Amino acid sequence: MMKRIYIILFLAGIISLPARSQEVISLDKAIDLALKNNPKIHAMQHQSGIADAKKKQVEASFYPKADVISKYMYANNLPNFYPLLGVKVPVMNGSAPNGDYVMLHPMAPFMNNARDLFMTDVNVVYPIYTGNKRKNALTAMDLLKDAYNVQTQESEADLVLKVKNAFYNYLMLNDVISVYEKALTQYHKHLDLAQKAYEQGVRSEFDILNFKSKIADFNSKIIELKGKRQIVMTGLKSLMALPMDKEVQFSGNIGDFFNKKELLGHPQLSDLQQNYLKLHYLNKMQELIATKQKITWADRLPVVFSFGNYHIYHGKDFPPFDKTWRDGYAIGVGAKLNLFDGNKTRAKMDELKAKSMMLSDYQDGLKLKLRFDYKKVQEEIAALKARMDAQKSNLEVSQKAYEIAQTGYKNGVTTNIALNDAYLKILKVQTGIINLKKQILAMEALLEYYNGQNK
Fold it and tell me: Which helix (H) or strand (E) holds 330?
């Protein structure tokens, strides 16, 4: 008795378990999730931080550089290290000796006797003039950050395009499945009609078997379409970085999206050339190379700097002064000019010039491709719309033909094959219109991508 109570309670607990909630996701939300969660976008967003760090490195050159060098050592001259040690050398007056002699001694810090040494130097250096190299380097870092940001925006726009295409494919499959499910319902009605006609002796058993075969075909087709929809859903989840086991449903239908797009006009080619993010990125890179050329050219200009030094040492003097602690300072200005670097600067300039020409050619090629693609998309949209208008007319004709075939079948005039063909034409036209709307939406999304829209 107790076992039965446990079983009843267990089953009651299963029945009362809440169903897993299914999140409904719109296209806008799908785009937001993709931009928020996509790892590639996250990785590219770090490029801006890299540019900021590079700029801070450049800003550091505007401050003086200070360093401290301190040494403590023990020095001992090896025997015979100075072979002329103690030798008297005559003092020359022009080319003739003047009769005086000087005893040779080693130069400090290599003393005659072993001793310990201590040396400390504090050095400060500040560039006063660098040929605007530092100023141009700051400009280059700002341009680099802009280029990184545009590159990130282009990746975001590309991701949005992929999300839109996948989303439209999902909705298209949804609508097609709905059409097939309605067709399946209609074929069940055909089957009922055939069975009644068979009972009345008007139709043969072949009609019943034929309709059952069509129903089986449609069931198989619906299963296939649902499988494709699941694959598209998996792809969308990957783009949004959602868990594969998360229950989601994507809202909307192709017709509503198509009607909204119909109200919007297409951008002009001039707008696309101005807003296309790939072109915008190349423009930024051209500006960056031009600034790098200024920086490289500055290597040929003199560098003026100021410097200061404070020093403390012990043990560097000749005996007996090597026991004295000494300190002092030195300040001044200096100039540095690279006279010859083996044509390295010229080669760098040639490299930057070649890169600039390469980017210019890329820009020209991208503009030509954009113009071609724009015209192609415009023509494809016009052709798709013309085909859709024709399909709408065909749908009216097909629906009328089906009504006639249905009436004829009821009266025993039309065969089941003619009835099936009439309905299949309606089905084909309906799915064709859905597919055409999806293709037009995909073309519109491509134009939005070219126009630099990342939302």
Answer: strand 325-336
Q: Is 75 exposed, middle or buried (0-12, 13-18, 19+ CB in 10 A)?
A: middle
CATH for 238: 1.20.1600.10
Q: Angle 254-262/133-199 helices, nearest 10 degrees?
A: 130
Structural domain includes residue 79: no
Q: Is residue 66 part of a domain?
A: no
- What is d(CA 364, CA 383) in angstroms, rounded to the nearest whole number? 29
Domain membership flag for residue 159: yes
Domains in the chain, number: 1
Determine whether 452 is exposed, middle or buried from the number of CB atoms within 10 Å of its CB (0-12, 13-18, 19+).
Answer: buried
CB atoms within 10 A of CB 82: 16
56 belongs to a structural domain: no
Are 152 and 43 spatial neighbours (Cβ–Cβ below 8 Å)?
A: no
pTM (2 decimals)?
Answer: 0.79
What b-and-e string marks burial along 58-72, b requiring 16 or more CB atoms within 10 Å of the CB? Answer: beeeeeeeeeeeeee
From the list 70, 56, 58, 69, the residue with the least C-alpha distance to 127 is 58
pLDDT in tens, 267-318: 888 888 899 999 999 999 999 999 999 999 998 899 999 999 999 998 777 6
